[in-house]
Amino acid sequence: MALDVLSMAYPPLLVFAAALLVLVLPRIAGFAVGALSLAAVLAVSLVAPEGQHLAGTFLGFEVVPFYVDDFSRMVGLGLGFLGVCSVIYAYSSEASETLVALALVYVASSIGAAFAGDWLVLLFMWELMAVTSTLVVWHYGGEAVRAGFRYALFHGTGGVLVMMAVAVHYIQAGTFVYDAGGIADGIPALLAVLGMGVNVAFIGVHTWLPDTYPRPHIAASVFLSVYTTKTSAFVLYRAFPVDAQSDLGIYIAYMGGLMAVYGATFALLQHDMRALLSYHIQAQLGYIVAGIGIGTTVYSELAVAGAMSHLFNNILFKSLLFMAVGVVIYRTGEEDLYKLGGLWREMPLTAIGFGLGALSITAIPGFNGYVSKGMLFDAANPHYYGEPELQALYWLLWLGAIGTLLSFIKLGYYVFFHGESDIEVADAKPGQTVAMLGLGGACLLFGVWWQGLADLAPTIHESAGHFEFAYPSGESKLHPYSASHLRTAGILTALGLVGFAVVRKPLSKLDLGDPAMVVYPATYSVSRWTMLAVTETYAAVDRAVVGAVTRCYWIGNNPVLAVDAAAGRLPNWLVDGDERQPTDGGRPSTIHLRTGIGTTVLLLTLLLTVLLWLLV
Q1: Residue 549 counted as domain residue
Q2: Using an 8 Å Cβ cutoff, are 118 and 54 in contact?
Q3: Confidence band of 354 (pLDDT split at 50, 70, 90)
Q4: What's the rounded Cα separation, in Å, for the pair 198 and 366?
Q5: Which residue has the higher pLDDT, 228 or 540?
Q6: Is the separation of the CB atoms in 159 and 192 below 8 Å?
Q7: Which residues face 272 on adjacent strands?
Q8: Element housing 234 (H / E)
Q9: Where are the transmembrane segments (predicted)?
Q10: In a domain, 354, yes or no
Q11: End residue of a domain, out of 493, 510, 527
Q12: 374 close to 363: Cβ distance less than 8 angstroms
């Protein structure tokens, strides 16, 4: 009975209720409730049977707020487990109750988007996720406020595109409920990939990542580093599933490959530790996006399994890395990695936590990133399970992997090993240590026990102790620790180590900015001149309308003077009029018309609404 009740619980509602309790309960009790609510999400994800658990109608539309399948189950497990660790970390990092309450509402919306079974519910959760994540950023104040406005601008724009995609999809499909074909082809698919591309940091619309995530509280950065981007990558798969066979798939795949290279390159150039990690969010999302694109291009179950597995793994090791770097910032007050060094003696537990995350994200054998990246490499490699048109993508993923290795060798070297530490600082607090080692243990677990990860992967099928998958040329079995795979990992690691030895000194002198950051001054200029154009046009129209109404009012009250004034403008040879006294005693007739742009827009909207209602 208890399991039946638990399986029918709506996960976002549990977390939202916990967010409210965090505000009213004593600090330790509120944080405990928050962690327990996310543990409940983890449990629900484990025990809920597959199918529609909540379904009904809303405003006449069929909706499925809570849908469980192998995909949403895997994402729910990752988000729930991370949520427990993040709340524990936030408690030890002295995050305020208000911040954690906002973060939990943000987490609830993200989980709601992951478990949504239709586009209408997804759209509501998507917008709520954008609003609440902005509030999490703003809460810290200072530079985070301006960054939060820029963040909101990006996500508002992306949300509008997704909303338009969903609206056109409904017109074509006649329903909001998900189906095996994903988003409708044509305009809906194009709008969806553009709108979702903002949240998954497509190149050119990725600048909100390094601009925003280094600025708020360290605990806020941990929440932000996962929930928006990973949930959005999962929603991208919902739009372009393996059964869709979309024409956009190949473009999505290559965008993912370019993201992997671009993110790793600019991560390598960063001084700010959290900015470096933020660029690596883009790089790792590139692998996930590439897998989704491959899957829908050539029907590769291995690519989809790799994408979902890497998404799950990314939830674990990316948050772990933000936690470790956050502890360094918390203890030293320093964000610049070049101003640190030798901290492994002062902070051995933090160094271990960082090492577990770094070994995972760089795909070292024995850690979870090795297994999921290996799937993606194999799915793209024409000599394994890829197709010839994916050859360039395979090399892009390779370049991204080398850049990732270089970045984390650099980060670990300068923060923990370079020189002697000239400061004495305490190591991580107990809660921070528990959170980091919990996530690090999971990274190690799914690297050694890769069968557990394969069993979670939705498109990998277990048969007689083997894990099988379909690809264009047939079926095959998963062998992540084969000799060829280990040899590839060895070559990749050696290239990274040698490459860092070569570029270390020149790299420390480079200070190159991201060219895409031009989007901010460009957006400011365009917005400013657009605003001036709109307001000046409004002012000109307003002056003309008010002048015309004022004249008509005066003419109505002073008809004789109006005739005389008009006659006075005519030549004397045409009209000879006598002078007359004003009928109002000499005082002009006036009318006061005062309203702002907002009131004008409201009045016009009401007028148009009434007219449309009358016409319909």
Answers
A1: yes
A2: no
A3: very high
A4: 33
A5: 228
A6: no
A7: 336
A8: helix 227-239
A9: 71-91, 98-117, 123-140, 152-171, 183-205, 217-237, 249-269, 281-299, 311-330, 351-372, 392-413, 434-452, 485-503, 596-615
A10: yes
A11: 510
A12: yes
Query: Number of structural domains, the chain?
Result: 2
Domain that holds residue 543: 518-569+595-615
Residue that terminates a domain, selected from 464, 488, 510: 510
Angle formed at CA 496 by CA 491 and CA 498, multiple of 5 degrees: 95
The one-character DSSP state at 475 is E
| Alpha carbon distance 369, 146 (integer Å) | 35
What are the residues facing 474 on neighbouring strands? Answer: 471
Distance CA 476, CA 212 (A): 43
Residue 295 burial (10 A CB sphere; 0-12, 13-18, 19+): buried
Please give the backbone phi and psi of residue 62, each rounded to the nearest 5 degrees, phi first. -75, 130
Angle of helix 273-298 relative to helix 368-380, nearest 10 degrees?
A: 40
User: Residue 515's pLDDT band (boundaries 50, 70, 90)?
Assistant: confident
Q: At what angle do helices 97-115 and 27-47 cross, to 10 degrees?
A: 10
| Dist CA 57 CA 591 (whole Å) | 52
Q: Are residues 501 and 531 in the same domain?
A: no
Q: Which helix (H) or strand (E) holds 66?
A: strand 61-68
pTM for the structure as a whole: 0.86
Q: Per mean pLDDT, which range of 43-57, 62-76, 251-265, 517-531 is the poorest? A: 517-531
CA triple 345-349-352, angle to 5 deg? 95
Contact in structure between 237 and 307 (CB atoms under 8 Å): yes
Q: Which residue has the higher pLDDT, 528 or 161?
A: 161
Residues 311 and 397 in one domain: yes
Same domain for 359 and 415? yes
CA gap 410, 403 in Å, rounded: 11
Going by C-beta distance under 8 Å and a sequence separation of 6 or more, which residues neighbour residue 319?
82, 85, 86, 222, 225, 226, 439
The DSSP code for 395 is: H
10 Å CB burial of residue 111 (0-12, 13-18, 19+) is: buried
Query: DSSP code of 570?
Result: S
- pLDDT above 80: residue 208: yes
Residue whose structure tokens are 């409004």 = 538
Backbone angles phi and psi of 382, in degrees to 5: -60, -20
**Are 386 and 277 members of one domain?**
yes
The beta strands (E) that lie in 388-465 are given as 461-463
Q: Are residues 348 and 442 in the same domain?
A: yes
Residue 97 belongs to some domain of the structure = no
Residue 234 carries which side chain, given as an amino acid letter?
Answer: F
Is 221 in contact with 214 (CB distance < 8 Å)? yes
Q: What does the block give as tokens for 90?
A: 């936030």
Residues 6+ apart with CB under 8 A from 116: 64, 65, 66, 67, 122, 125
Q: What per-residue confidence (pLDDT) applies to 29? A: 97
